Amino acid sequence: MGRFFSVAALASLLSIVSAQTSSSCNPTLKSGCPADPAMGTTLVTDFTKANAIPDGWSLVPNTVGTINYNSKGANIVLAKQGDNPTLQSNGYFLYGSFEVKIIAAPGQGVVTSMILLSDDLDEVDWELLGTNTAQVQSNYFGKGDATTYNRAAWHAVANPQTTSHTYKVDWSNSTIVWSIDGTPVRTLNYADAASGTRFPQTPMRVRIGIWAGGDPSNGEGTIEWAGGLTDYTKAPYTMYLQSVSVTNLSPGKSYTYSDTSGSSGSIKVDGGSVGAVSASSVVKASSMTTSLSIASAAPSNPLTSMASGNATKATTSPTDKPLAGSGSGSSNASSTVSTGSPQATSNDSGRREVVFLGALIASFVSAIILV
Question: What enzyme category does the UniProt record give (predicted)?
Fold first, then answer.
């Protein structure tokens, strides 16, 4: 029993959670924020047929790095320290689905991210680590709240750095379902997110990119979570974005927040209305025990805070790590886009990391009961 307790307590102690902590205008903190442009009913992009940034997309301001376009898709490249090339959708959507087909970047300390992000810090994530050939991480945040330890989960996926996989999020007003290659792997119910108060429920835009979680300037916890220090001598590291499909259940011209509550009821749709689907019509993961492993959240992702201002310096502690592996990749450029100036890789990324000690107390209680 002593061995069980020490392992469980250590895993709980080392759990780190993180969330975006800055926004150019957070509607829950002040009124009068600019309206968010709304997507139409669908946004479907085949990046394998693009030779430049496609319609409906743009580079995140201050992004640094190179994105090439060829038959492999958008080749998003981390070539040197400070690179964090990231694409974002021009429009926001409120409830619907987000599906992306990619080959993740290889490399120790290299992170491939697909993120849904709102102005008031709601967030839904997919994150892939360059040396983890067996798992992908899902995560979510509501209003930037990082005070709980059990938001992230790991899911089995085979060789994501060399094999194309499709990652999907189905988002309604009652559930969020993460799926891989058509198979649901995780379901979050509205009531399970702090009675709905931390359930993502405000207009979000898409961000897809690559960053160095293992940069030496990052905190120890971030580096360990990312799989170790990033070896820039082995760069470039490339992720291949092949296609994206977004369905918007609340199409219109724009979204505005009518008050500072951050609730879906506060959202007004210019030229439309807030749409949603019932829980019964959203596919759910049939088994949580075989596909979901609660773990630490992804720390200090700069993709969530570029051009947001008011950055907060992160402090970290070591975190439990997923199963490690290896992979490789390369890119053949057909056209190149590079913009911005060097950006802080993580410490000034506008996210925070918190060691959540409540889980340790739970481990002590479990140990006492077992003894």
Answer: hydrolase
